[in-house]
Write a structure and sequence with these properties.
With about 250 residues, the chain is an alpha/beta fold. The chain contains 7 helices and 13 strands.
Length: about 250
Amino acid sequence: MKVGIHSIIKDCYEPYLLEWFNYHHSLGIDYFFIYDNESKVPIQKTISQLKFQSSIYVELFPGKASQNVQRLSYLKFLTDAKNGILPHCDRVAFLDDDEFIIIEDGDIKSILSDYLEFSGLALSWRMFGSSGILKRLPTSRMKKFVYYTPSTYLGNLNIKSIVDPYLVKEPETAHTFHFNQGICVDIDRKPIEGYYINPPIYRRAWINHYWTGTMEDWQARLIRGRSDMDNPTDRDSLAIERIDALCTEHI
């Protein structure tokens, strides 16, 4: 089995990005398909520090947030994969650079091998706030962001998908896909209907979503804008305060 990750990335803080690559490589990810949305420091330069850089494919992918560049990058990847331009992967996870797949036994292939009869596997979000940290420092996100929202928080109903890219008809959203055949299921093998798993499942595999980062990270995110909308949409600048107030759970 070969497993890949697709991500479109813009101006991710270098220590965070290196952690993201190293962590997912440790889970057993074989290939990374990265679409660089005009980062000030090119991602190709950042990955030169990694020993497994030969397994990372970086494509420059210019575009404004108003063009829904995330969807466009999905379509470009799927087209190139189906045309044999990119290395073959049996499963590909579509993630953002602030999302970390958590695997209880540490081996993503051991999990995915149990779901090969399905076209996709949906994983629940677990959303984290700033943990009260103001400044961006080159320390591990997974270690410093320790407060997260309870399972009842509506944002945690969202999913991200790991799919057979050759069975995808088209992306439905940044989270879900339409398939030419087969279905997407959750960890309990229940078919996904819509965009959610309710209640979220935090067994075997899920996604830690370090959504806000520090206050400094959040301010940079507000300036950067969104990549998943057809029309320009300003982020709610006060959202970090609201989510921090809801982060009552602790690792």
